[in-house]
Write a structure and sequence with these properties.
The chain has 392 residues and is of the alpha/beta class. It has 3 domains: 7-77, Winged helix-like DNA-binding domain superfamily/Winged helix DNA-binding domain (Arc Repressor Mutant, subunit A, Orthogonal Bundle); 82-201 and 376-388, 2-Layer Sandwich (Nucleotidyltransferase, domain 5), CATH 3.30.420.40; 212-369, 2-Layer Sandwich (Nucleotidyltransferase, domain 5). Helices cover 41% and strands 21% of the residues. It has 12 helices and 15 strands. It has helices at residues 7-24, 30-37, 41-54, 118-138, 175-184, 197-208, 268-271, 273-280, 290-298, 302-326, 342-359, 375-388, and strands spanning 57-59, 75-77, 82-89, 93-100, 105-112, 142-150, 153-155, 160-164, 169-173, 192-196, 217-222, 226-232, 235-236, 330-334, 365-368. The strands form 4 sheets. Strands 5-4-3-6-10 form a 5-stranded mixed beta sheet, sandwiched between helices. The chain has a 5-stranded mixed beta sheet with strand order 13-12-11-14-15, sandwiched between helices. A hairpin with a 4-residue loop joins strand 7 and strand 8 (160-164). Helix 8 (273-280) packs antiparallel against helix 10 (302-326) and helix 9 (290-298) crosses helix 10 (302-326). This is Putative NBD/HSP70 family sugar kinase/DNA-binding XRE family transcriptional regulator. Pfam families: HTH_IclR (PF09339), ROK (PF00480). Belongs to the ROK (NagC/XylR) family.
Amino acid sequence: MPITGDQTLLKQINRMAIVRRVRQQSGLSRADIAKETGLTKSTVSLLAQELIDEGWLVEHAIQITGALGRRPTPLAIDGGRLAMVGAELGVDRIHVVGLSLSGEIVFKTEQDLQGSGPTEVLGQLARLLIDGVAQVRASGRSVFGVGVGLPGAVDEDAGVLKVAPNLGWRNVDVARPLRAAFDAAGLDALPICMQNEADVAALGEYEFGSAPVPDPLVYLSLGIGVGAGIVVNDRLFVGAAGFAGEVGHSILQIAGARCSCGREGCAEAYIGLRAIARQSASPGDPPRDLDALAAGVAQGELLAVRAAQQAGHYLGVLMQNLWTAFDPGRFVLGGPTCELGAPLLDAAKETIDAYALAAGLPAPEVRVSRYGRRAVAAGAAAMVLHKLLRPV
């Protein structure tokens, strides 16, 4: 679609093109950027100076080239002056982080949910986010946006959480109460964006994962529920109604174990934390929480290790199915279930490797999330940057 008539938008497109190029290759000179973006040298020089003044870019030591004339000054991303704040609204806990432009966590906090209804929980979320913004600002950084990862299908434009089965919520307006709280706190100029938890975590890995970051990328969120965030052609793949990635309710076994959604054989019924906890408990014993389950695995308890390995096998099957559907260059595994460690992760890798060997194909890369249990909160912050870098 041609873009004409809006000089402000055109300028922002050019500014972010410069930032994206420097993020891809640190140390480029202004002349290098002009050559690679197609912008004029004068335009790059003007916009680069603005970006330096605002905290996006920083000049490094002048390169020694041996050539006559003015030496080029390399540019890099400035990780010390700007930040985004992100939050995960989980099933039982809220995580909030501040993230620098270089992807480093500069602030973090977490708190158990202090209620179950939308009014109480969203009020708590707003308070933690507002405090997070204040804490990051107190460290000397400017905050240019806030993101939120939500545990269910999201209508991003309306700011509505359409359905969150593990919270028992349907059609909850998240944007309105958050916006009202931010406006009351004097943060009316600060943009707020939100999306499904696995989707934002995928953006966190896409923006700040180990280079080179492949496209497509599939992030698997492993916790009480199981979800996927999928980045294809530099964009989130969310589907027609925002339900793409609900892979926890794809069927892994016909007439299998009953899932919380009422169907039988869903991935969540084999890979979800509740299912693993049930499998690890002795007859008559109550299921253990994550910390106890992880401790049992670490100590080599037979039932706990077997439960983690079985879940890992089913996780490998799920990855195989997603591999055939999306052909990703990388799977990233994140969420609290990953804390079960090698028995789960090795079993998953061995399973997908076996499918790859049988097909005579190289297996896709499988990594654990850079941000661990804070992957969703960090991804929500990264979503703010992801959107800003792509003005159209």
